[in-house]
Design goal:
Blueprint: H1 2-23, E1 28-37, H2 41-49, H3 54-57, H4 59-62, E2 68-71, E3 81-86, E4 89-99, E5 103-110, E6 113-124, E7 127-137, H5 140-148, H6 152-176, E8 179-188, E9 191-201, H7 205-222, E10 232-239, E11 244-253, E12 266-270, E13 273-281, H8 287-300, E14 311-317, E15 329-335, H9 359-365
Domain AraC effector-binding: 183-337
Protein name: Effector-binding domain-containing protein
Organism: Flavobacterium fluvii
Length: 370
């Protein structure tokens, strides 16, 4: 019996000693890991910047099939956030700030630990170096766990390494898996639509389109306007040398409407036209390849394009429908210039009974007041 008391006392003293040891350990930690991702910088940034994609590459979600994620209404860029619960605990993160294609700054809470997180993106000859850094404070229980598992650097570092590996694997397939098909000539029916028109750099079209699509969609909801189809963009001009374009971001609607002057949203009608249709299945970064293939077809068939606008793109399936870029579908239409057939004038038969009035007589018969 005395031996049991000694054992219990020894165990108690050990627990007290361990608690004192853990409590006196530094709670601050800094962890950083980097990896070269085999995809273009803009594609990697846009994928990581969308919180909806987090579950596709972060190791906490990838390794936990039962994890529950509750996202905020806005899932892209500054202000986006979500909360998760899983087998390994629960947490939340919020995006504090972003710099287009350069960095993402976040605040993360996970199992009682808080951290300031930065993810930076650097171009490396067509690939992207992603650096993920977290600096924060550990809670008591996590101090205990790290004391027996190699420290915070090993635990969080392993999580970062596996996540970056998942990101590279996911994007390598999703970004680089695509197909292009030239469908041929089609008749594009008349379309009523709402639009906002402006000039943009090529590199900012994707970001600007997302913002304006949301703006026009909200406008339709507030004014009970029926949306009738998929969003599209009309490229009025397309300057490949300076990488500038004048474009209209458009939402098709069921019936034409009147919008008062002063609004940056306009109501227009796109008349029926004949076009060369080309379909890109895959990430939008392959858009230039699709445009080049369509142009080659136009030249091979001696087809001229109409000067009304450069081309039109319809986003039949995008990230609103699926998080897998390899399944996105973009339809591209080049307006075709119609050939004008001029028939030769028919000769007047010598036996005709019609009276031919001389020009001099016509001029003489015109009243002087005209």
């Amino acid at each position: 019996m005395r031996i049991l008391k000694y054992l219990f006392l020894l165990l108690l003293l050990s627990l007290v000693a361990l608690s004192i040891f853990v409590a006196t350990q530094k709670g601050e930690f800094t962890v950083e890991r980097s990896k070269i991702i085999n995809s273009p910088k803009s594609a990697v940034f846009n994928y990581v910047n969308d919180a909806n994609n987090w579950k596709e590459w972060n190791s906490l979600a990838v390794e936990d099939s039962l994890i529950k994620i509750t996202p905020s209404q806005n899932t892209i860029g500054k202000g986006s956030s979500f909360f998760w619960q899983g087998e390994q605990g629960e947490g939340d993160f919020q995006t504090i700030n972003t710099k287009e294609n350069e960095s993402i700054i976040q605040k993360v809470n996970y199992n009682g630990n808080s951290a300031d997180v930065s993810i930076t993106f650097k171009d490396t000859l067509g690939k992207t170096k992603v650096s993920w850094k977290a600096k924060g404070q550990m809670g008591f229980l996590f101090k205990v766990m790290t004391a027996f598992n190699g420290g915070a650097n090993k635990i969080f570092g392993s999580m970062f390494e596996k996540s970056l590996f998942n990101l590279d694997k996911k994007l390598d397939y999703e970004i680089n898996t695509f197909s292009i098909k030239v469908d041929g000539l089609v008749d594009k029916p008349e379309t009523y639509y709402l639009a906002q028109t402006f000039t943009s750099e090529f590199s900012k079209v994707g970001k600007n389109s997302g913002i304006v699509f949301s703006k026009i969609t909200d406008f339709c909801k507030k004014n009970n306007i029926t949306i009738n189809g998929k969003p599209f963009v009309i490229y009025h001009t397309y300057d490949t040398k300076n990488e500038l374009t004048k474009l209209s971001i458009c939402i098709p609607i069921k019936d034409p409407i009147f919008i008062t002057e002063g609004s940056d949203i306009s109501s227009k009608t796109l008349p029926l036209f004949q076009a060369l249709k080309t379909t890109l299945t895959g990430h939008y970064s392959h858009n230039k390849k699709a445009l080049d293939k369509a142009t080659e077809y136009l030249h091979s068939k001696y087809l001229g394009t109409d000067a009304a606008f450069s081309h039109l793109e319809i986003y039949t399936i995008g990230k609103n429908e699926t998080n897998n870029p390899s399944k996105w579908i973009t339809e591209i239409y080049y307006p075709i210039r119609q050939k004008v057939v001029v028939k030769p004038a028919a000769a007047i038969p010598a036996s005709t009974s019609e009276k031919v009035v001389p020009k001099a007589q016509i001029e003489k018969e015109i009243p002087s007041e005209f």
